[in-house]
Amino acid sequence: MNFSERLKTAMREANCTQSTLAKAVGMAQSSVWKLTSGAAKSSTKVVEIARFLRVRPEWLASGIGEMHNSDVSNKHSISDITSTRQKISVWGDVENNYDFSDKFVEISLLNVKLSAGSGSCELNEDSEFSIIFSKYSLHNMGVSPSAAKLVRVSGSSMEPALNNGDIVGINIDKTSIEDGKTYAICHDDVLRIKTLISAPGKVVIRSFNREEYPDEVMSLNEFRECIRVIGQVFWSSHTW
Questions:
Q1: Within 13 A of 199's CA, how many CA atoms are on the CB side?
Q2: 191 - beta bridge partners?
Q3: Does 216 map to a domain?
Q4: pLDDT digits 0-9 by tens, 121-160
Q5: Which residues form the HTH cro/C1-type domain (predicted)?
Q6: Is residue 91 in some structural domain?
Q7: Is residue 187 part of a domain?
Q8: Which domain holds residue 213?
Q9: Which of 94, 181, 184, 192 has the most other CB atoms within 10 Å of its CB?
């Protein structure tokens, strides 16, 4: 399900009208209509909407996990977090740097704009679109909230894994090539999502749709001159 379908499901289960939801979270009814119709892909009010409809913000925002919390699973997860805090050290010291009480983070979509004459991409966050992630989920994926960004897939080269218009989460702290991992790269001022494979003296740029998009092979020098690795993909909104 996409965002609008999840929202309509939650509203239907709660027997909630667009007018009721709009008043409850302080939105115009027309804005709620845009969300339910798919004209708008997300909202900065996702957490408030989820609370009012009694669903999990992660599920509503991006389809992650179950629709509802259960008392049993909540108690179990809180217990697990409390008992293992000293063991978790994905980025820095947990006691000092990881705030479990602040559960969610809003990640913005990156717009890639061309920097005239510079041969590089200028990355700008789109304040009109963002997705809510739980910090704990990011933590489990080894991604610092400050390093998590979103970019949109363009074209069919990564089908069937990624479709045109899908959104992927990238970790901008990971720019070194790990063989077989997928990255957002800036290639001659064009944003591309590709799998990178390093080989002696060269780099292979690979698409999932290899029948239509054969491997591109570059020397290391050519790769360094033409390619900027923006970050490694850690999540996708893959549509069906």
A1: 10
A2: 186
A3: yes
A4: 566 665 557 788 888 888 888 899 889 988 888 888 888 8
A5: 7-60
A6: no
A7: yes
A8: 143-236
A9: 184
